[in-house]
Amino acid sequence: MNGPKDPTFSKKNKTLKKLKDQVIVITGASSGIGLVTARMAASKGAKVVAAARNEDALKELVEELRGKGYHATWVKADVGREEDVNNIAETAIKEFGRFDTWVNNAGVSIFGHAMDVTNEDIKRMFETNFWGVVYGTKAAVNHFKDRDVPGALINVGSLFGDRGTVIQSTYAAAKFAVHGWTESIRMELEKEKVPVSVTLIHPGRIDTPYNEHARSYLEKQPAHRGMLYPPKAVAEAILFAAENPKRDMYIGSQAKALKVFGTFLPRLTDKLMEVVMYPTQQANRPSKPREESALYHAGYGLHERGTNIGWKRSCSLYVKATKHPILSTIAVASIGATLWAAAKRKS
Fold it and tell me: Signal peptide position in this chain (predicted)?
């Protein structure tokens, strides 16, 4: 799994490469966030290593990208299997000589009360959502250490990794584990002075096939209802972090707000979640049979969007503000000054 060492490496130089000069590994690349990220990364000049369980979807994706003149390869992999994850790294090195960014994106959810979900299903979900991140982290960090070059490790968490929820309680537990792992490994690498940028992505409600792929213990089909963000907003955040060291990227003000309210007003947040989350995580149609879920086998691929219901935003202003904090501060200050001046004139 080792690539060639970079003679230009310096412990003081932690600058990440521009996307056009990068090889980027993306797990869960056959649909949703991973699919959009793969397409966007390729369009910006990056060489893409797309990994997922759906081999047919991966082949079609790579053919699509190569047909546009982009560089891409695919790896059929179940991230819950360490040997599969190591094969992703080996394929990237064999095909492109290295990789510069690793995105742990693959994930699956379970909708149902925690006491109803079988332990077998919970363990399987943790294999994908948590152990897949652990295996991917180790493969990526070992590669960056072996090459002695700065690299980016990007783990996709969730707003439910910052604050627990009902119905997706077991999924929230897995994402809490991902958040804890990411924060801990970041500190250890910093203490060792290993030049790896570790970013945690905090998506809000995203309009992807995530709910269709989930295993359901509900009578009604899982679905997001309410304000939704497009998967391209998450891809935008991921690719920004691939070039710019960032600790956290929140997709949507709802993700940041839930963390803040959950931290400072936990009891009130409990009550709000108990009221709001039941009707906003289900559609008004019967739930699909559990065996059709993507928990144990690949779900359908090449769909960026899902069957969710609500206000579908075209972008995340919060992501754009995070990318340009100085301009955003100036804009907010200018708006505030204008409103203050108007109020003063009226008085």
Answer: none
Nearest to 41 by CA among 240, 231, 210, 203: 240
Q: Which residue's structure tokens are 């009226």? A: 346
* Residue from 171, 210, 217, 250 carrying the catalytic annotation: 171
H-run or E-run covering 227: strand 225-228
Domain range list for the chain: 19-315
Rounded-to-10 torsion of CA 173, 170, 53, 204: -70
Local structure of 324: helix, strand or coil: coil
Q: What is the mean pLDDT of residues 323-346?
A: 53
pTM: 0.90
pLDDT in tens, 193-224: 999 999 999 999 999 999 999 999 999 999 99
Whether 135 is a known active-site residue: answer no
Is there a contact between 99 and 121 (Cβ–Cβ < 8 Å)?
A: no
The pLDDT tens digits of the residues spanning 101-136 come to: 999 999 999 999 999 999 999 999 999 999 999 999
- Domain covering 19-315: architecture: 3-Layer(aba) Sandwich (3.40)
CB 333: neighbour CB atoms within 10 A? 10
User: Which residue type does 136 have?
Assistant: G
